[in-house]
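Appendix B, example 12.
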Amino acid sequence: MANIQGSCLCGGIRFEADAIDGAGSACHCTMCQKAHGGPFGAYVTLDGVHWLQGEELIAEYRSSEHCSRTFCKTCGSTLEFRDRRKPEHVSMAISALDGDHGGRYGYHIFADDKADWYDINDGLPTYPAGN
């Protein structure tokens, strides 16, 4: 039985997942900054994702040779980060999860690209590039 629920801002897209697989990442690459409209994008890997409604509202943007990002066509909410080299991984924006889900990021990646106006000072492991 799925215990993780999620949705986009407008509620047109809803999903559930069985579990969060480990600590997520806070990605400071410039693409994540722009996609999330903030200093970083935070993602967790989900197991057993099932779309409940609105799958037809999901748009995909190919942001690099191997990766793409999904979002809601209606409200623009960021949803997934997809890596074609790892199709079995479902990396979902933590902000798309609803309620007290327990998802947290546990490390920072692409810290060399972080926004100049943001300081990483939470004591979590920090990597200059990917992990």
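The CA atoms of residues 42 and 95 lie 8 Å apart. Residues 4-113 form a domain with the Metal Binding Protein, Guanine Nucleotide Exchange Factor; Chain A fold (CATH 2.170.150.70).
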